[in-house]
């Protein structure tokens, strides 16, 4: 089989597209007007981030205790008309919110004995579509905690 520049170009294009598909970046955030994730206007309302599947608030730097952990995460759950089936693949790395200033990254959890706990579960977000599911893999709706032996069975 003869290797031509066209063949090399095609192989390179496939590699670039594969990398782009695995890149951990937010997918389009299209809010659904039929959902009111924070209809009761949860307090405090410091740094608000709205996603299709949830709304979250972070402590601002007003009192110097901003830890990059959400103060609260709110989401509305509605019945789904049919079984959902398997959800889409997860991103290869957790996304962070650079606008927040202090945001944990994938590396900040290594060897810390902390786990990332979803405060808006992937499967709940999957009800609102693949992009909503994907966008739960950010450090925004996470609360870190130390797993104990009993936590693994729940």
From TrEMBL:
Pfam families: Endonuclease_NS. Residues 49-133 form the DNA/RNA non-specific endonuclease/pyrophosphatase/phosphodiesterase domain. GO terms for molecular function: hydrolase activity; metal ion binding; nucleic acid binding. Residues 83-108 are annotated as: Disordered. InterPro entries: DNA/RNA_non-sp_Endonuclease_sf (IPR044929), Endo_G_ENPP1-like_dom (IPR001604), His-Me_finger_sf (IPR044925). This is DNA/RNA non-specific endonuclease/pyrophosphatase/phosphodiesterase domain-containing protein. It comes from marine sediment metagenome.
């Amino acid at each position: 089989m003869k290797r031509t520049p066209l063949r090399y170009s095609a192989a390179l294009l496939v590699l670039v597209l594969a990398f782009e598909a695995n890149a951990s970046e937010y997918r389009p955030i299209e809010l659904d007007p039929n959902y009111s994730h924070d209809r009761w206007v949860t307090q405090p309302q410091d740094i608000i981030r709205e996603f299709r599947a949830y709304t979250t608030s972070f402590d601002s730097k007003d009192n110097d205790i901003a830890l990059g952990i959400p103060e609260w995460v709110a989401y509305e759950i509605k019945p789904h008309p049919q079984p959902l089936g398997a959800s889409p693949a997860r991103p290869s790395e957790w996304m962070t919110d650079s606008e927040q200033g202090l945001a944990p990254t994938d590396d900040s959890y290594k060897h810390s004995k902390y786990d990332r706990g979803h405060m808006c579960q992937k499967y709940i977000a999957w009800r609102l579509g693949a992009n909503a599911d994907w966008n739960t893999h950010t450090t925004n709706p996470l609360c870190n905690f130390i797993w104990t032996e009993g936590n693994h069975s729940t």
